[in-house]
Amino acid sequence: NKQLVLLKQLPEGYPVVGEHIDVRESTIDLEAPLQEGQALIKVHVISIDPFLRSSMRGNSRDEHIPPVDVDQPMYGYTLSTVIKSNIDKFQQDDIVVGITNLEEYTTISSSDPFFSVTRVRNDIKNSVLPLSYYVGVLGMPGHTAYAGLFEVGKPKKGETLFVSAAAGAVGQIVGQLGKILGLRVLGSAGSDEKIAYLKEIGFDAVFNYKTTSNISEKLTELAPKGIDVYFDNVGGETLEAVLENANRFARIVACGMISTYYSEKDIGVRNLMKIVPKHITLEGFAVFDYMHLEDQFTNEVTQWLKEEKMKYRESTTNGIDGAAQALVDAMHGKNNGKQIVHVSSP
Ligand code: NDP
């Protein structure tokens, strides 16, 4: 029996498995004829990303993230094989990566602009790297780290970079790209285990924000020369502390503000005024605006992974029946590295 991840009810704050999301049997008929412009795919890997929470709002705060209707399957990034296709660009046995419903078997439609971002990646069929990397370090999160750090952060060798949620999918890549570029790299994360990992992959100084009583003082201690680039994944108190420790002409890469995602209210930044006298640039960005960098990003990061100049840690849940729990656990920061769900092998 085939299964899917279902949105049962809109959550307030953190969702609960069984109440807001669940794994249910799918009614898909694998023998049914495909309509024109449709393809049937078999999902192998599901990527658990923070935007899945954003899709559980009745109306999204982010135009890139359409809301999911109650009683409908959740969507997200997957890696899959095409089973049969009525879409010209997809052939049987192609490996495809992109946004699809979170189902063991699902259909994609060429007429839906959102789902049509799914594209063929047959180049990875014989890759020596794990297939799951293509929804992680070599997929959307890696692309986010690369574009955000280089294009928005504009770092220069010798500068000090600070990354929050540093042990997550995006953060661990940002820090390692910073080291490759010759930056001094600081990071924060929420457990001692994650802190140990950050040291292992070359971060120069790290701290557990959950056991640090004063983040601003900690940053002053760890960055005596001040912060030049802050890659912000969390917003909130950490962003406020960075504003106090940022240098003149510092760049703040506003990638995400995960500490605010579970609140229904928008939360202000206490000392935003600091950006005025310090000439700080605070720039938001969406990875979708940097698709032109995809080949460059893929080639460089693939090379660094093969040369072991970069490492990548994943947290794997086996089987789609664990997907709803994996999603909720990741929202609580229980993921050690990029959270994925292994659904099936190709
Ligand atoms: P992950 O799910 O891999 O990691 C997120 C981590 O955030 C968690 O593991 C947790 O680790 C930490 N976290 C959770 N809640 C809080 C909190 N209240 N305060 C501080 N830290 C918290 O996420 P990604 O690496 O995939 O994403 C990182 C950020 O990048 C997110 O904000 C996401 O929305 C954003 N993003 C933006 C994109 C863009 O185009 N702008 C594209 C992709 C992602 P810990 O134990 O350290 O608390």
Automatic annotation (TrEMBL):
Pfam families: ADH_N_2, ADH_zinc_N. Keywords: Oxidoreductase. This is Enoyl reductase (ER) domain-containing protein. PANTHER family: PROSTAGLANDIN REDUCTASE, PROSTAGLANDIN REDUCTASE 1. InterPro entries: ADH-like_C, ADH_N_2, ER, GroES-like_sf, MDR_fam, NAD(P)-bd_dom_sf. GO terms for molecular function: oxidoreductase activity, acting on the CH-CH group of donors, NAD or NADP as acceptor. Residues 18-341 form the Enoyl reductase (ER) domain. It comes from Phascolomyces articulosus. The keyword Cytoplasm does not apply.
